[in-house]
Amino acid sequence: MDERLERYVAELFAVEDPVLARVRGRHAEAGLPAIHISPEEGQLLLVLLRAIGAVTVLELGALGGYSGIWLARALPPHGRLTTIEKDPRHATLARQAFAEAGFQGRARQIEGAALDVLPTLPPGFDAVFVDADKEPLAQYFEWSVRLLRPGGLLLCDNAFFHGAVVDPADRSATAQGVRAFNRLAATDPRVVSAVIPIRDGLVVGVKVAG
Ligand code: DHB
Ligand code: MG
Questions:
Q1: Which has fewest Cβ within 10 Å: 34, 67, 81, 200?
Q2: Looking at the whole model, is its pTM more than 0.90?
Q3: Which helix (H) or strand (E) holds 56?
Q4: SS in 3 state form for 68-113?
Q5: CB contact at 8 A, 159 and 178
Q6: Which protein residue has the closest C-alpha to ligand 1 atom 4?
Q7: Is the beta carbon of 133 within 6 A of some atom in ligand 1?
Q8: 44 φ, ψ (degrees, to nearest 5)
Q9: How far is the CA of 35 from the centre of ligand 1 (A)?
Q10: pLDDT per residue over 2-15, tens digit each?
């Protein structure tokens, strides 16, 4: 998209309030990599979750809590965001972010590796947002589909992985992981999916069967 159009859309549809701006600022000060979602992507997640009336959302990879605030804001007061983060530094920042946004009660943060935590979670989530390490993405796909309710939303950040998915020279485990997720999202009969070319690409799928 043309840069001016991008700015136009961002300024009109994806305005950050002071809480989000502060959380993003603290994230940068703490030296976390600037790989969190953009406000435009946050707004899109919020719209998608509202569209299905999501009450429970699972996030893989909290980072500094920026995306978690967008997800939690989409939920009704009795809603619940469950977010998994394995890095204790990130988890501390995320906890602070949720407290600042007033979501302590609505956000349940679990510290640990996703593959250890996922088998302990009860199924039935309205949506799963995958934004964690990239190597295990095929396993994250499987767990996400298992834990989603029928009609639930499968959301995954970094579908393009900065173009690595179409670079045949990139045989890295991370690029392979992203390709594997995309292929599963596109071909597994339990979901129907599309990619929205926002920021680094967002996979949006719906669980249609078992
Ligand atoms: C990178 C970006 C992401 O959004 C992410 O979730 C992980 C890694 C990156 O730029 O390397
Ligand atoms: Mg990401």
A1: 34
A2: yes
A3: strand 56-60
A4: HHHHHHCCCCCCEEEEEECCHHHHHHHHHHHHHCCCCCCEEEEECC
A5: yes
A6: 35
A7: no
A8: -65, -45
A9: 5
A10: 899 989 999 999 98
